[in-house]
Amino acid sequence: MSLPEINEKQSCIETEKRRFPYWICPVVCAFVWFVMNWVLMITWLAQGSPVYKSMGGGQTVAYISDIGASMLKPLFVIGCTVTSITFFSSLYAIHRNQRRLETSVDIAAIGAGGLGAVSLILLSIFDTASFPRFHNGFLCLFMLGVIFSAVFTTLSYRVLGTAFIERAVLKTSYQIKQWIVIIEVPLTIAMAVLMIIDKDNIAAVLEWLISFVFTAYVLSFYLELRPRSRTMEGKELLRERSLWERRNRRPISVITSMKV
């Protein structure tokens, strides 16, 4: 690595350290989503598994939205809003940090994630009890947005080639997303088919499973955004700096000392 490249890389790292700690976003997103769903489920079970007016004939297992349209709607709206904002922020930060915004795959991933995030907020506001058609439409857009964001994010790693995914952290994140796509796509298709043929009880169970898979998908963002990623990059830069100094037999005076 040449001296200008070392200077440029250190400048990028120092700039990154001053930015907002985006690694918080996936943690908050996963926590809020996970806790909200458990609160909804526990409340429904504690009430004796009631049948809400939004539930179809013969349906005994409530969808997440059925419970969210009850007295817990404020919790549902707030939880979905926080989840949407932090989910999109996490997705955007990943692609921005890797400087890959110029590729069409990354733009598609962010666009799909944005569609899913907005749809999640709208489906919580237009609840299934009062606005069933709007709610189902936004639910469909949300699920499609999340799935396509995962697909495009996974493809973006492939576009970059094997050199990028050789880093252990990023390789692990890539593998997690790949498995999530493999699991979530058939589950979503099965849920949609079951809803169409009025097998709501099984479809509701699948919806709960999909919601927890979404939690794992969001947590995979943390692997790429966590502070250690920047620390490891800083250590790599120090090794490059030391090698350059030994090779040229003089210190790099233009580079300030780093703390990693």
TrEMBL record:
<dbReference type="GO" id="GO:0012505">
    <property type="term" value="C:endomembrane system"/>
</dbReference>
<feature type="transmembrane region" description="Helical">
    <location>
        <begin position="138"/>
        <end position="159"/>
    </location>
</feature>
<feature type="transmembrane region" description="Helical">
    <location>
        <begin position="179"/>
        <end position="197"/>
    </location>
</feature>
<keyword id="KW-0812">Transmembrane</keyword>
<feature type="transmembrane region" description="Helical">
    <location>
        <begin position="20"/>
        <end position="46"/>
    </location>
</feature>
<dbReference type="Pfam" id="PF10277">
    <property type="entry name" value="Frag1"/>
</dbReference>
<feature type="domain" description="CWH43-like N-terminal">
    <location>
        <begin position="22"/>
        <end position="227"/>
    </location>
</feature>
<keyword id="KW-0472">Membrane</keyword>
<keyword id="KW-1133">Transmembrane helix</keyword>
<feature type="transmembrane region" description="Helical">
    <location>
        <begin position="75"/>
        <end position="95"/>
    </location>
</feature>
<dbReference type="InterPro" id="IPR050911">
    <property type="entry name" value="DRAM/TMEM150_Autophagy_Mod"/>
</dbReference>
<feature type="transmembrane region" description="Helical">
    <location>
        <begin position="203"/>
        <end position="223"/>
    </location>
</feature>
<feature type="transmembrane region" description="Helical">
    <location>
        <begin position="107"/>
        <end position="126"/>
    </location>
</feature>
<protein>
    <recommendedName>
        <fullName>CWH43-like N-terminal domain-containing protein</fullName>
    </recommendedName>
</protein>
<dbReference type="GO" id="GO:0005886">
    <property type="term" value="C:plasma membrane"/>
</dbReference>
<dbReference type="InterPro" id="IPR019402">
    <property type="entry name" value="CWH43_N"/>
</dbReference>
